[in-house]
Structures are given as structure tokens and as C-alpha cells.
């Protein structure tokens, strides 16, 4: 079957008596999915590349612009929150995404740090205009983007429901994606770096929904830039369903803009339940979660829950020294002792 061929779903729906009521974000994967994976072994060359980048960003004299075009000429050193972002895993993600080319990885990380300052997600008191849940709340009044459940590999599920569009095209839609991508990776539990994206193009006819059409190419390309350039190695899989003819045309038009790694992770017109256990999947897609989006309930709970997770991680970052190169395994855990100091030799992992 061709890449853009349609497939029929013949999976029977879940009986009503088996449904599980849900109206809030699920904060942790089921315990039965297993424990967090510890750090994996790297080669001597890979660790050498990591150490070179670590040393570069550890330089106390390093100062970076506060916006991507450097229009103000203002520069400042890395903040504590930016050092928190610069984890061991973060450095390795950019190296993998750039095929272990050190200068390209350094360039990508530098550009992302500046971009995070500009869009307001670098966190900390240094940010003049932080991007908050309140800023993009109006974009999600119909529940067009939600975090709900985890896949079998403990990865957060990020739903995008194009058919629930409630606003006209604007940069605020890009800001919503930025806010939700940052939220999704924040929700990643210990030992998990990637998320699974579920895209539903079904047209919904409810109050507040104005269109089910695909977004303008300019908005779509801006969103692609966010995901590919500033969240590298964060996408495990992107499953797209209920794709109407105009969306197929749109996807074919956008496909050349996808990098090879993203193309490999795209799955077209296969049922979500192929990848997700029913207890973690919305009933609308043959799962057991009887989820009804209520903006007044879901949104504030999601925002506050993610703030708690983010600040809990930051407190552990400070506890373990507040330095660049700490492991997300330590930051996201609940153990007392530091397991992976910045000089940990990852080539010796069994």
C-alpha cells in the first residue's frame, strides 16, 4: 500500500461499561509499563563529542543574544534555568540529530537557546515576556491540542485535532504549539526522551469550532521548524488518521519540507490503538478513556500540573549542583543520591 493510501479501520468500539471517566491530564504512565531505562552506552568518540560541547557551554564568559536576529545587540550569560535545560541528554540529542557533527550540534543548540529566550520559554526572571498558559488558553477552548495518556514505551501522548479549530490563522497558533511541545516534553517521565503525536483530521461540529481545513502553509512550516529544529530527537512517532482529500493534498505539499528523520516517524491512516493500550487511549479512538474536554477543568489542571513537574525537576537540578550536564535521569527521579555526575564515563555502561 502506498505512503498516502487510505486504510479502513474495522476495529470494534469498546463497550460502554468498560469506559473510564477522564477529564484531566494523566501525569504518570502505569507502573506495569516498567521502570525507567538508565543511561545507555556510548562510544569513546561520542563521549568525546559530548565533552567538547559540555566544555563550550560551561564557559562562564559565554554570552548569547536575547533574540534570534540580534536586533537589540543585547547579550547575556546562561541563566540557571538555561543550564537546567542543558542536560547530558539534551547535548546528546543535538549530537544525534546532527549525525555527531560537533559544530552543527553546537550551532543548533546555540540557536535554540536564543530562540527559547525570544519566544519566552527559557523560564526564570530574565525573561521579559514569558509564554504562559494564559497567553494561549483561548487557542485551546475547543480542546484541539491535549496531553492524555502514555504509549507502551511510557511516552506522553500529544493529540492534535485539526477538526476542532476555533481561531483564525495567526502566530498565536504557533505559540500554542510551542507551549504544548514544551509541555509534552516536560511530561516525559524519568528515562523517557520522546513523545508520540496523534493527529486527527476529523471534522467536528460543535459550538466554537470554525473550520476543519488544513492550516496555511506559512503556519504549518513555522510549526515544522519548531519541532524539527528546536525539539530534535523528541518525536518517537506521529500517527495521522481521518485524513480527508484536502488534507492528503496538504500533506503531500508539506512532505518535502520534512527532514528524513521526521519522514521515517510518520504513520498514515493507521488506528491509534495499534500503538496504545485501551486504558491509555481516548474512547473516540476505540480506547477506554471516556474523555470529554472541559476547558475550565482541563486547562488549569494541565498548566498547574506541568508547573509542579517543571519546578520539582529544577529543585533537584539545584540540589545536585545546578550545573550544565546533569542527567535527566537524576533530575526526573526521586532518589536521594546523584547517580550520573557530569564527569560520569558513559562508555563504561554495561
TrEMBL record:
Keywords: Endoplasmic reticulum, Microsome. SUPFAM superfamilies: CRAL/TRIO domain, CRAL/TRIO N-terminal domain. Residues 135-293 form the CRAL-TRIO domain. GO terms for cellular component: cell periphery. InterPro entries: CRAL-TRIO_dom (IPR001251), CRAL-TRIO_dom_sf (IPR036865), CRAL/TRIO_N_dom (IPR011074), CRAL/TRIO_N_dom_sf (IPR036273), PI_Transfer_CRAL-TRIO (IPR052578). It catalyses: a 1,2-diacyl-sn-glycero-3-phospho-(1D-myo-inositol)(in) = a 1,2-diacyl-sn-glycero-3-phospho-(1D-myo-inositol)(out). It is found in: Microsome. Its main location: other. GO terms for molecular function: phosphatidylinositol transfer activity; sterol binding. GO terms for biological process: phospholipid biosynthetic process; response to xenobiotic stimulus; sterol biosynthetic process. The keyword RNA-binding does not apply. It holds the Pfam family CRAL_TRIO. Residues 1-21 are annotated as: Disordered. This is SEC14 homolog 3. It comes from Maudiozyma barnettii.
Amino acid at each position: 500500500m502506498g505512503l498516502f493510501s487510505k486504510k479502513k479501520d474495522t476495529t470494534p468500539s469498546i463497550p460502554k461499561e468498560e469506559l473510564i471517566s477522564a477529564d484531566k491530564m494523566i501525569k504518570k504512565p502505569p507502573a506495569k509499563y516498567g521502570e525507567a531505562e538508565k543511561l545507555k552506552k556510548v562510544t569513546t568518540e561520542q563521549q568525546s563529542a559530548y565533552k567538547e560541547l559540555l566544555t563550550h557551554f560551561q564557559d562562564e564568559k559565554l554570552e548569547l543574544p536575547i533574540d534570534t536576529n540580534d536586533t537589540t545587540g543585547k547579550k547575556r550569560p546562561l541563566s540557571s534555568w538555561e543550564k537546567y535545560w542543558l542536560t547530558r541528554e539534551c547535548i546528546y540529542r543535538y549530537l544525534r540529530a546532527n549525525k555527531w557533527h560537533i559544530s552543527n550540534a553546537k550551532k543548533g543548540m546555540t540557536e535554540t537557546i536564543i530562540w527559547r529566550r525570544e519566544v519566552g520559554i527559557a523560564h526564570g526572571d530574565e525573561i521579559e515576556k514569558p509564554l504562559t498558559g494564559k497567553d494561549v488558553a483561548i487557542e485551546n477552548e475547543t480542546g484541539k491540542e491535549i496531553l492524555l495518556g502514555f504509549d507502551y514505551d511510557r511516552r506522553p501522548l500529544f493529540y492534535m485535532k485539526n477538526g476542532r479549530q476555533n481561531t483564525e490563522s495567526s502566530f498565536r497558533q504557533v505559540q500554542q504549539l510551542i507551549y504544548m511541545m514544551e509541555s509534552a516534553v516536560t511530561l516525559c517521565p524519568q528515562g523517557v526522551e520522546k513523545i508520540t503525536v496523534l493527529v486527527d483530521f476529523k471534522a467536528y461540529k460543535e459550538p466554537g469550532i470554525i473550520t476543519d481545513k488544513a492550516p496555511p502553509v506559512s503556519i504549518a512550516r513555522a510549526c515544522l521548524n519548531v519541532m524539527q529544529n528546536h525539539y530534535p530527537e523528541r518525536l518517537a512517532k506521529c500517527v495521522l488518521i481521518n485524513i480527508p482529500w484536502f488534507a492528503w493534498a496538504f500533506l503531500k505539499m508539506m512532505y518535502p519540507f520534512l527532514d528524513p528523520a521526521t519522514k521515517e516517524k510518520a504513520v498514515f491512516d493507521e488506528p491509534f490503538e495499534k500503538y496504545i493500550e485501551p486504558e491509555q487511549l481516548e474512547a473516540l479512538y476505540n480506547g477506554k478513556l471516556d474523555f470529554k474536554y472541559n476547558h475550565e477543568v482541563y486547562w488549569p489542571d494541565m498548566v498547574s500540573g506541568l508547573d509542579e513537574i517543571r519546578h520539582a525537576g529544577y529543585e533537584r537540578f539545584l540540589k545536585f549542583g545546578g550545573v550544565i550536564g546533569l542527567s535527566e535521569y537524576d533530575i526526573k527521579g526521586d532518589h536521594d543520591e546523584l547517580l550520573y555526575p557530569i564527569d560520569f564515563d558513559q562508555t563504561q555502561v554495561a
